Fold this sequence. Notes:
Largest sheet: 6 strands, antiparallel
Order of helices and strands: EEHEEHHEEHEEH
Oligomer: single chain
Amino acid sequence: MFRGRYEHTMSSTGRVSIPSRFREVCKDKYGDEKFVITNFDKCLVAYPLKEWNEIEKKISELSQFKDEVIYFQRYLVGGAVDCPIDSQGRVLIPQSLREYAKIDKEVVLIGVLTKFEIWSKEIWQPEESVKAFEEFKKSRELLAEHGI
């Protein structure tokens, strides 16, 4: 599982180093070092190909005639790009995704179990990190009811 928070600098060509811990998870659990990266909230989200395929399978089972499904597919699936890891452990983030997430140079990568998020450091700190903590505090009671 992906966990932890890492800060990296994006190269001038749009390449970001994937934390070695994340690469180990990919190699051990998925046997593949290819991610699908897409838009999500104010950040990007990276799924190992196997996890992404499961999401696409579930999405394809939804009604193709409901507006909310159509827009969901356009946004999430339409924004998705296959991004292999190069020999130096970096992934090239396409310009369109960098623009969407306002990623310029400094990035924060946050492990979230079967995926990880890629944030612009400027957006993550302090706005989203504070919001994440506030929402965490709110959700503790709900999660406690589920034995967590």
